[in-house]
C-alpha cells in the first residue's frame, strides 16, 4: 500500500512527476521503448489471442537480457552480475528451445507462435550466452567469483529430477515434454544465485536490479496465462500426470515468492526516488 500511495503522490503532483522522470530518465526511455515495441508486436505480429501473453513474457525477458548485455559493454564491467545465474539461464532456455522448435504443444495459439515466440526465446539464449562469454573471458577481471558462490547445480539437478517425474504430455514425446518442464522448474529458482550475490556483496548494481524487475514482470505474464490454462497440462488417464498442472502453478508461485521481496523493495526505491543500489539498506 505504501508503494501505491507513493506512486499516486508522484503522478498527482506534476512537479514531483517531472523530478522523478529526470531522476530515472534512462530507465523511463528504455521502458517506453519496450512498451511501444510490445504494442507494435501485438497489433502486427499476433492475432490478439490471450496466449500472446507467453510471447509478451518472452519479449520482456529478451529485453532484460539485452539491457544487461548492453550495460556490460558500455561499462566494460561484469561487476554485480551472477555468472552462475546466467549459465543456468542458458541451460534452461536451450532445454525450452528443444521443446518448442520441433513441436507445437507449448506454443502460443496465435500467430506469434508460428515463429516470433521461438525467435525471442532463441534471442534470450544468445544474449545470455554472450553475457556468460563477457563474464568468463572479455571482462573476467571485473567478475568476482568469490561473491558468486551459489552452486547452480543445486538447482539444476533437482529441477531435472522433478521434470522426469512430473511433466505434461502436450508434445506427445517424453524427452521434449521433460525438456519443457525442466526449463520451467529451473526458471522458478534460477534467480537465487543473483539474490545470494546481492546479500554477499551487500550492494546492488542498478542494471542488475532492473533485470530482475523485468524478469519478474515476464514471469507474472506467464503466470497469468498458465493460471488460466494449467488444466490442459493434466492427463487424467495417468496417475503421475493427473495433477501435473498444479505442479506447474506451484513452481511459478515459488518463483514469484522468491522475487516478491526484492520487487517490493525495488518498487519502494523507484517510487521514493532512491537509487536502486541502496535497495538493501534497512531504512529504504
Automatic annotation (TrEMBL):
Keywords for this protein:
Endoplasmic reticulum, ER-Golgi transport, Membrane, Protein transport, Receptor, Transmembrane, Transmembrane helix, Transport
Top-level taxon of the source organism: Eukaryota
Topology in the lipid bilayer is annotated as: Multi-pass membrane protein
InterPro entries associated with the record: ER_ret_rcpt
The compartments listed are:
Endoplasmic reticulum membrane
GO biological process: one example = protein transport
The record's GO molecular-function terms, alphabetically, read: ER retention sequence binding
Pfam families documented for this protein: ER_lumen_recept
Q: Where are the transmembrane segments?
A: 28-46, 52-74, 86-103, 115-137, 149-166, 178-198, 210-229, 244-264
Q: Which GO terms describe its cellular component?
A: endoplasmic reticulum membrane
Give the protein family: Belongs to the ERD2 family.
* UniProt name for this protein: ER lumen protein retaining receptor 1 KDEL recpetor 1
